[in-house]
Here is the input.
Amino acid sequence: MAIYELPEWTALGPALILAVTALALFAFDSISPRSTNRQLLAGTAVAGSLTSLGVAVWFTVAGVGTPTADGGNGVIDPTHGFVVDQLALYFMIIVAVVTALIVVASYDYLVDHAYQAEYYSLVILAATGMSLMAAADSLVTILIALELASLPSYALVAILKDNRGSVEAGLKYFLIGSLSSAIFIYGISLVYGATGHLELAAIAEVVSGETEAGSGHDITEMGGLLGLGILMLIGGFAFKTASVPFHFWAPEAYEGAPAPISAFLSSASKAAGFVVLFRVFTEAFPLGEIGAVIGFDWTVAFIVLAIVTMTLGNFAAATQDSVKRMLAYSSIGHAGYALIGLAGLTADGGELVMGAAMMHLLVYGFMNTGAFLFVALAEHWGVGRTFEDYNGLAAQAPVACAAMAVFMFSLAGIPPFGGFFSKYFLFVGALEAATASTAMLVVAAVLVINSALSLYYYSRLVKAIWIEDPPATRDRLAQPTGLYAAIIVAAVMTIVILPGFGPVVDAALDAAGAVVG
Amino acid sequence: MEGAFSYAPAIAAFPLVAFVVALVFGKWMPKKGAIAGIAATGASLVFSLWMLAAVASGETYHETLYEWTAGEAASEIGADTIGFSFGILIDPLAALMLVIVSLVAFLVHVFSLGYMNAEGETGLPRYYAGLGLFTFSMLSFVYADNLLMAFMFFELVGLCSFLLIGFWFRTRSAPSAAKKAFLVTRFGDYFFLLGVVAIAATFGTLQFAGDESFVAAAEAAIDDGGQLFGFDAETWVTITGLLVLGGVIGKSAQFPLHTWLPDAMEGPTTVSALIHAATMVAAGVYLVARMFGYYALSPTTLAIIAFIGGFTALFAATMGVVKDDVKQVLAYSTISQYGYMMLGLGVGGYVAGVFHLMNHAFFKALLFLGAGAVIVLMHHEQNMWKMGGLKDKAPVTYYTFLAGALALAGIIPFSGFWSKDEILYDALIVGLEEPLIMAAYAMGLLAVFFTGFYTFRMVFLTFHGEPRSEAAEDPHPVGWSIKLPLIVLGILAVVAGIANLAPVAKLANVDITFLEHWLDGEYGGIDEVTYSAYSELLAYETGVISSEQVTVLIAAGLSLLLAFSGAGLAWKLYSDPEPTAHKERLGSAGTVVEDNYYQDEYQVWLAEGVTLPLARVADRFDQTVIDGTVNGVSTASLFGSSWVKRIQTGIVTNYAALLIAGFIALLLGLGVYGGWF
Here is the structure.
């Protein structure tokens, strides 16, 4: 398949397909605002996300981003401010997978719900933003893509207009998001001020001293300024990935939002945040050179953030009563795990640890989405929110509960599920990086301690579902096809990603190697 | 004989198949698995004889069949790889042992038809499955080509022993005896395992034979005069050898780990004959013979082996004197006889030890099966004081039992005499130069008297005199399946001595020491594991009294004299038609002996008085310190959790403040770190 016969802009295909889908949904809603043709709406959204997924996979297999020396088609520069390489495609796949799963699941969740078309188009629009985030390589396009992902998310969190929690969560999310965006934009302007560039590659050239800063000053004189800008960028990304201290929105937003949206935000949105984080820091601020400019390697910041985020997320999750809130905090904890991917980078290596973080995000896309979708199923059943309300569900819905057990154990990192392998690679990668920086030993230790703690609250849920007796008053539970299908696909993927790990490992390591090297 | 050895794995595989068949289909089979067992052990016997013939024609077999793991290693002598494998080593020793084991197993299976099936036992599939698994494990142990494989099957025979002792698991005593056997032998095996690990870590190999063997490596290390793990090479070989010896002492029921064997008589008598007399108990002694080259490198270990052997021979024989249960007498006699074998090996009498191992397997299996026949005759009565007068009512049983008894007592010309005499002769000539060995010899010699006494006490009480119970007056008839094995073993007990008539050879100067030639690899063998190779390694000096012939005569004369006096005393005391007990005459000594020198009591005390308090301390440590730490961690985590949870107040202005505060903290921290200010 000769991809180069296509025009270069088509390399953004996965994102463009999502954009077109979103617009089509908008158009349909404008023409027929009161339509209740749910099949058509959901079907369009599913088709769009699956097509996006298919194209992204096809591009990956066809060798987009693979260096030409290895027989690939090389990195494609579709237009100013975007780049399509292995990293971009890898995360486009994650985004598309999660989108497809939650769209399928939403079909049942949204029964008797107003604003169906808005819902789907907002989801797809947010997905478009996330997909573009994966490919953006200029601070401007990054900002735009990020806001494109964020703004629909705010609306989606608050879409249950009759639900006070949902509206309140939406508002909180919006306020914290605005604050974070302000900090982020300020960071961009500081970086621009220091280097005179917005494109990542150009920034890198200034940082490494190959070209002069736009202002004509020596870049080393502006170390503090650039450092402050970098920290503020970190703030913006920390918001998107729900990392400490920009995580405050997450528990409330995840808890208040419709469960499929919680799944969407905690999996796809987080992954999108991470891809930008990976790209900006590996491309714009090369390790080894950045230290001379700002006085330290930015890995220090990520070591601190990773430790704090892991610990806070897991500790706060341990004693939650509400299942959804527990998952929200666990999601913060997992952001901490993924941050190790940046904390463990070194000037001349770190593909393993970063590849591991990327694998973890992929597996997380299945297991965490699945877990939230199970919560969506429980909300659909109307059984309640707390652990106790979940007691004995397995007796009535064994298949879904088996899937939930898989998600929980995979999240905790128990073999043979996918979550074990990605966490294991993270651990190995952290230990490998410890040869360069002993602080990584602390990170590895904290990872282990937090995993152990996480097993406590994950297994608590499994115990409630499988071991406790169900309350006598519970009615028969329905089996909504869409939700079930999405949950089962997520569970199967959580398990079979293990045999499939060979290609996934290669893809992640290639992608990591491409940006790190 | 070309290609015979490619069938070697089948020898062990047949009983394994029988095990599976008996276990799975036994319930529906006409004889509940007996037929399968007999067929399998019969086939094993035929194949073993074939192997024997192949070795006799000058071939040997040493092949690694399956390497289950291999990798890099850092061994003490510098070998940088180690492999763990299953392999087969068939040399004269192994071939001989294969035949012994499969023959006894076959006969015991046949005997079981009469002893178990005909007596209407339930749970027979389990019984035959156990026998099959045991035979498989034992045969595999015998031709194992490396120490780890030997260890694994050593453990497996121990498991089978446990299962079969506890066959009548509904009684109180059988499960308890099974547990005791398991625990006591396990205690020894613990040292064995340490020895295996130590040898592997030292030499990077566990092979018994060949250039790559640990024996060759140990020899080279001693020649180099280097240090191993901070010890002199020879000292280290002694230490590891003694560790392995721990397993031997447990399995072959040597002092002080002999206490399990008498209790093991709770199992069916057939099991006692096969496992606790002829084969499994022999595994310990066989292991010493198997790695004799290693022990030969360490005179200290050999002396310890000899001394333990001599002491056990005497010690157990004295206890056999006062027992009333026919199986108990035989149990102590077994312990005593294995003591002789250890004595023989310990003084460098490799041929003598193996010779006695073979003879003992035949005559002790015979005696146990004979006792089994008596038990059937007596309607399951085992107390000898309730027997008597069976001589005329069961002539086949009597005469075969008598042949076994004569062999056990060491009366010329029965088989036991020749091998025991050879052991004592070997001990004597070494003892003339080494006082410690002389002491071991003296104990072994004195044990001959007791052996003669308890053997014939048993014969007289059981078969002679007037019947002393209703059962004895009207014995239950026994069938061909009981008589046939007795006859076969009876013949062997009489004639097996021909294999190595060493005294005759020395006196008449004729070359009839066939077993010595066999073990020396003159028909076929592997160079480093032959008798003469071992003899070169031995550091013993030997002496003679005036001349070799005179020494032979003195040794044989002394042991015969003592054997006859023991037997004679038994005749004098117990050959009355109505014999009376003479135990009171022994006074307080008799009580001590009857209570087995309080061996069980002190071992129980060790367990309850020493181990249990230690275990309690460990348990308390676990409960308080370990669990306390774990619980503390969890309490601290949950407390921390509730504290962390409190940050999330739900008020968005707080969030904004905390967010900015966190950001500023990060900024200040990194700013100071990066020197911005």
About this structure: Chain B touches chain A at residues 634, 637-638, 640-642, 644-645, 647-648, 650, 652, 655-656, 658-663, 665-667, 669-671, 673-677 (CB under 8 Å).
